[in-house]
Ribulose-phosphate 3-epimerase (Corynebacterium canis), 215 residues
Amino acid sequence: MFIAPSILAADFARLGDEIRAVPSADWIHVDIMDGHFVPNLSFGPSITADVHKVTDKPLDVHLMIENPQLWVDEYIKAGAAGITFHVEAVDDHVALAKYLREQGVRAGFSLRPGTAIEPYLKDLEHFDIVLVMSVEPGFGGQSFMPDQLEKVRTLRKEIDDRGLHTLIEIDGGISAATIGQAAAAGCDAYVAGSAVFGADDPDAAVRELAEIAAG
Ligand code: DX5
Ligand code: ZN
């Protein structure tokens, strides 16, 4: 089980300190927004590379951008351990996944809440991660959408029935109040932004999430 604090909710002016304040994190979730695929803008490869310099933890890069195939090399150079792109933003998700694996990074795809999972089930063996969005991508601090857990259940069954190793990750509105439902539905990895960096003790928040998810 993996807890991935999203630095989108951190104080960007104190990013190094914020990352050092979550030693219990398994991954650091890095949200990249381009102002086109989503209305918001976050940061790009150079800040991602700076983040890589201050932590040994795997960087879980979530690209909420148009044409991710044009940018993945920059994020690989910046030190991404895994790159998750949106299926809505590419023509050939399997080709991009193959490319990412050839470069030695974990390949992930994500879907907006309104995008069905069924058409992508046949391609799961090409992916290390499926990131289920439980909010509309673009902003931190939104409310968890419990209806998205149906996708998690579908994925859990498919992955287990076929003996695959793809991890199911969930992103958006994850907190102590919601992570239990996500765990019960079959998630393996949990992104949490405001629930971690908005807490008085961010590392205690990470540990609490892990405890609840472990059941
Ligand atoms: C939303 C991002 C999330 C976001 C989660 O578009 O992909 O990773 O930071 O933030 P919270 O946990 O506050 O919903
Ligand atoms: Zn994210």
